[in-house]
Specification:
mainly alpha, Serine Threonine Protein Phosphatase 5, Tetratricopeptide repeat, two-stranded antiparallel ribbon, two-stranded antiparallel sheet, 20 helices, 14 strands, about 40% helix
């Protein structure tokens, strides 16, 4: 009897608690409507766009090209370049992150007019609302550009882009949205950038007088309230200047040979768009004197001095500054306690001209195969460690020859595979010696001006020839002359002055872009948009103990012709029935 009563009592207790046990716990998920009275919560939607920007660190996609290899056998770009690239395995993929960002940006654009952005100050609510719209439109344009660069391609005789989404999606939305044409996507980029420029200032800087308040807000706000919204505190957020930089990048992509058959964007427009941002930088006089070694140890003072969101003269837009040593740990040679990951190729080394400006295969160059690194373009020594280079704060000599130190060719798993190590981007006042390591300030630029000067030179040459200027005050030749002069090419530059044709100038501009932007993630995309070969084998040099050397292949590149355009991710094709690019 007692056992039966105990059983009944336990059963009652259990059953009486079932409702609580089986009911889900309260979730800590805020409703979207809460953003209307919580400006910080609302801004979180916008900030999701910034958080998802690619470029938090260097990707080194150069490893997928003829400019570099990696000594890491599992490097995703190495695997991609050697035959393992597919719509299921795409290390270049931007689809997921970009569309997630666009969803957040569309949400804030749909709701921002209802948000109580400020409860104090004159016209501050309205100014915050304008700023939010401008930032969201500019970021949305940038993510569309990223998507087109990676995923646009030809299919069925048409150049396709990606689905254009300008409204937030919810559970009731139609997710089976077809891809828009490349042209439609470009026009959407331009539309968003136009809107961004309507709402944003040229730069986020403090003003000191009511006379400096833009006419749109004149008589409605105060200097203090204007600075609260559009002042220096907000540096590194989207601005008119940055929007113009994005426009120049997008137009250059669209005007290029791989895309020009599917768009109305011309080389002249690409040149005009680049000039629009360069003119704000002072034209050719605005080229940063130290822009060709902007991250070398000799430029450490400028980096250390960055504060309150300021930029070096070379940089238009960048990530935040942070203390780090990961780049050096990954890329120093073994005797400096690094992993030597990114190995420049002989192909890239040979692309650097002599100090007199002539390519090494030109009879006028003075190049000596017996002393190949003598009298070369100074950028070679700034960007690449060769046999006998000194590196690190103590000036350690790095020997890449056979039979020397662990820095020698293939000496240990972290040694170079090509006979070279990367120097560019590294701060040589960083030590990764386990007994005496330190960190120094680093940052990664989203856009730097040299890229835009090179974009103008390329587009201007194609539109108007080497000496044409369109409606601008400088030509492709003058732009390249300024860049080569800064690099330390001997003057007068007889090689440049002898170039007369668009074709020859194109070759030089492409090469200058290769040199100036090496290891920054441009080479792969440039080869594709130029419709140039992706299958040039990566070469290296074997330097024997007696000093003799042999150049030979290190890694074969396995790409098919259709790979000038990347794939739409396989899962997206399966889920939504999207049209895949030809060949994938």
């Amino acid at each position: 009897m007692k056992r039966r009563l105990v059983f009944i009592l336990i059963s009652v207790i259990i059953l009486s608690g079932c409702k609580k046990i089986l009911s889900p716990a309260d979730e800590n998920i805020r409703d979207l409507s809460e953003i209307y009275n919580d400006a910080a919560f609302a801004e979180g939607l916008l900030l999701n766009g910034y958080v998802r920007l690619p470029g938090g660190s260097y990707s080194f996609t150069d490893v997928a090209t003829d400019d570099a290899v990696s000594n890491n056998p599992t490097n995703s770009y190495r695997l991609m370049a050697t035959g393992q690239w597919s719509s299921l395995n795409d290390p270049m993929e931007q689809w997921t992150g970009a569309f997630a960002a666009i969803q957040y940006l569309n949400l804030i654009l749909a709701e921002t007019d209802k948000v109580k952005w400020a409860t104090t100050g004159q016209f501050t609510k309205e100014m915050f609302n304008d700023r939010t719209k401008g930032e969201a439109y500019g970021l949305r344009a940038l993510f569309m550009y990223n998507l087109l660069q990676v995923h646009a391609g030809w299919a069925g005789g048409s150049l396709l882009g990606v689905p254009i989404l300008t409204a937030p999606q919810d559970s009731k939305s139609n997710f089976r949205v077809p891809r828009n044409t490349f042209e439609e996507c470009m026009q959407q980029i331009y539309k968003d950038l136009d809107l961004a420029e309507q709402f944003l200032p040229l730069d986020f800087e403090n003003i000191s007088s009511v006379n400096q308040i833009p006419s749109k807000y004149a008589g409605k706000t105060t200097v203090a309230d204007y600075n609260r919204v559009f002042g220096a505190y907000n540096r590194q957020r989207m601005t008119v200047r940055i929007a113009k930089g994005i426009r120049a990048k997008a137009s250059l992509l669209a005007a290029s040979p791989a895309f020009k058959g599917g768009t109305t964007v011309t080389w002249a427009k690409a040149a005009d768009d680049a000039a629009a941002i360069l003119d704000l930088n002072g034209g050719l006089s605005g080229i940063a004197a130290n822009g060709h070694f902007w991250y070398a140890s000799s430029n450490a003072g400028e980096i250390n001095g960055l504060s309150a969101g300021l930029n070096p003269k070379e940089v238009l837009w960048r990530r935040n500054v942070s203390d780090a040593n990961a780049l050096e740990r990954d890329n120093y040679p073994p005797t400096l306690y690094g992993n030597g990951r990114v190995n420049p190729t002989q192909n890239l080394v040979d692309a650097f001209p002599m100090a007199n400006g002539f390519p090494i295969n030109d009879p006028n160059s003075g190049y000596l195969a017996s002393n190949p690194n003598a009298n070369r373009d100074p950028r070679l020594g700034l960007y690449i460690v060769v046999n006998g280079s000194k590196e690190g704060s103590q000036g350690k000599t790095i020997y890449t020859k056979i039979g020397g130190t662990d820095d020698g060719l293939n000496a240990v798993p972290t040694s170079t595979r090509t006979g070279y190590y990367m120097r560019k981007l590294l701060r040589e006042d960083v030590s990764v010696d386990p007994a005496n390591s330190n960190m120094q300030k680093h940052y990664v630029p989203y856009i730097r001006y040299t890229e835009l000067y090179l974009a103008y030179a390329e587009a201007a040459n194609e539109a108007w020839g080497p000496n044409g200027k369109g409606t601008h005050s400088y030509s492709a030749r003058e732009t390249i002359a300024a860049i080569r002069n800064r690099a330390g090419i001997q003057q007068p530059d007889h090689f440049l002055s002898a170039i007369n044709s668009t074709d020859d100038m194109r070759k030089l501009i492409h090469n200058e872009r290769r040199l100036e932007l090496c290891f920054e993630g441009f080479r792969f995309w440039d080869l594709r948009r130029w419709k140039e070969s992706l299958v040039e084998s990566a070469k290296g040099v074997t330097i024997n103990a007696d000093g003799s050397s042999v150049v030979g292949p290190v890694e074969t590149r396995l790409y098919n012709d259709h790979m000038l355009f990347g794939p739409i991710p396989y899962n997206e094709i399966q889920k939504w029935g999207l049209t895949q690019n030809t060949g994938w």
